[in-house]
Write a structure and sequence with these properties.
The protein is mainly alpha-helical. The protein is built from 7 helices and no strands. It is globular, with a radius of gyration of 18 Å. 16% of the residues are buried.
């Protein structure tokens, strides 16, 4: 909620986040390929984040209205507690990656896709950099 609403698309050529399948991309492209132990840890962190507002608001993050969610995200992003800052920033980055992974978001930037596709380059996968 806080991250989607804060993507600065209003008044720009950028595609509004609610027009992009951000969460579906996150699930399919990022989470689906994670090692089970890493995914389990991430899910635990997400649950910790979701429960975080209970102390102040008496409800979970998904139950907050937009104003409360923004205040909560800001509080955790600026917290002195490392786990809170790390989760707020980590989740923000994951959602940002999921947004920009969608081709409709590229056109307003003038990006027309990976050159490997345009130039017909064969993918070599994750190979190490050449040694000099």
């Amino acid at each position: 909620m806080c991250i989607r609403d804060r993507l600065p698309t209003q008044g720009t050529k950028l595609v509004p986040a609610d027009k992009i399948p951000v969460m579906q991309t996150l699930d399919a492209a990022l989470l689906a390929t994670m090692e089970p132990h890493i995914l389990q840890g991430l899910k635990g962190g997400i649950e910790y984040f979701n429960q975080g507002p209970k102390a102040k608001y008496g409800k979970t993050f998904v139950e907050l209205n937009t104003q409360e969610a923004e205040a909560f995200c800001d509080a955790w992003a600026n917290s002195n507690e490392v786990p809170q800052r790390a989760l707020a920033m980590g989740l923000k980055k994951l959602v940002g990656l999921a947004y920009w992974a969608n081709p409709p978001t590229w056109e307003p930037l003038g990006y027309d896709g990976p050159v490997t596709v345009k130039w017909g380059l064969k993918s070599l996968g994750n190979n190490p950099l050449p040694k000099v």
